[in-house]
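Let's inspect a concrete specimen:
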Amino acid sequence: MTGQLHPMTPHHLPFYVARPGETDVLMIVMGIFLIAAVLGVGNLYLQLHSLPERMAHKSQKLQFEIVAVLGLLALFTHIHLFWIAALLLAMVDLPDFGTPLGRIAGSVEKIAQSAERPATDETDDDDAVAPGPDVPKPPTVVKKEVRGHV
């Protein structure tokens, strides 16, 4: 060992010091460990970052899209307030306004279609019966335009 080392080198070197011309095993092991640690921490960061999106995935589409946009803003701008807002929005169950409004719209369509059908024998609709010569016409209302100073 003393023939290959510098004459000023102490004789009690630790085991991890590589001799000249040999492979530094500790550097290779630490390089592999560093790559694995960076990939592991990056994976953990991205899993934590996508937590609000995974929580909002089972909710409504609009809520999921807002949470996803907030998550992307937080990822690219590094403003953590966006991520906190996305997490809070993902935790809150928003009420479903779409289904009742859709049912109301469907009912109104049915009512409008039933009003357009021709009248049956028993009807109280004044528009279905044409006025005869002895039935007076209702008076028409004439609107006058009034101009004044405001």
The first helix runs from residue 25 to 49. The chain has a mean pLDDT of 80. The two ends are 108 Å apart (CA to CA). The chain is about 55% helix and 0% strand.
